[in-house]
Write a structure and sequence with these properties.
Blueprint lengths: L1 H13 L3 H11 L11 H15 L4 H18 L5 E4 H5 L8 E7 L2 H10 L5 E6 L5 E11 L4 E11 L17 E2 L1 H9 L7
Parallel strand pairs: 2-5
Antiparallel strand pairs: 1-2, 1-6, 3-4, 4-5
Helix pairs in contact: 1-2, 1-3, 4-7
């Protein structure tokens, strides 16, 4: 499907999220807005193919840098039970990708207080959560030493009870997120480039 191929290019080359990439692919291909969109499984497959074809020499190092940066923030935020998710967790991130951590807090405001105590500046917004309900995102710009540029870090704040069932594998048998120990293993074992 041509839409998936164009959307995959936009995800890799411009760092777009899947939804916006699919919609923009429709426009670039001059297709009707109601044209059926590829599902995320197909789009991720096309992204992996694109990375293997055009970015095989750079993407593994960029992914490693993002995972290392995510790990350092997970260690800083350990009291809030951080879990890495998204493209960095699934192994398809590039230097244009943002890092998404899900925090599972006893008190939703504790993450904000923790950032303030650490002197971290952040912006808040509401985004859809993994169960479809709105959650607060604390957005931070953090320096990535390997890139010598800032990367977006999104801290999605969940209630501690949301952690139950959050580690259940998806339809493909993959874990949708990884805890501190899982990310530490990915960072320290260069052979593990995909989660």
């Amino acid at each position: 499907m041509k839409v998936a191929e164009v959307a995959a290019r936009l995800v890799v080359e411009e760092g777009l999220e899947y939804g916006p990439a699919k919609r923009r692919a429709l426009k670039e291909l001059s297709l009707a807005p109601r044209t059926a969109l590829p599902d995320n499984v197909l789009l991720e497959l096309r992204v992996r193919e694109y990375l293997a074809l055009y970015c095989a020499d750079t993407q593994p190092l960029e992914l490693q840098a993002l995972r290392s940066l995510a790990l350092s923030w997970m260690e800083r935020l350990q009291p809030f039970r951080p879990h890495l998710t998204g493209t960095v967790w699934h192994g398809i991130a590039t230097r244009l990708s943002d890092i998404t951590l899900q925090l599972f807090c006893d008190d939703p405001k504790s993450a904000e207080i923790g950032l303030i105590d650490q002197g971290v500046r952040f912006e808040t917004r509401t985004v859809p959560g993994f169960r479809g309900m709105p959650v607060e995102s604390l957005d931070v710009h953090v320096m990535c030493p390997e890139f010598k540029e800032y990367v977006g870090l999104h801290l999605l704040v969940y209630d501690f009870d949301d952690l139950r069932g959050a580690l259940t594998p998806d339809a493909s048998g993959r874990r949708p997120r990884g805890d501190l120990l899982a990310v530490r293993r990915l960072v320290h074992d260069p052979a593990l480039l995909q989660a």
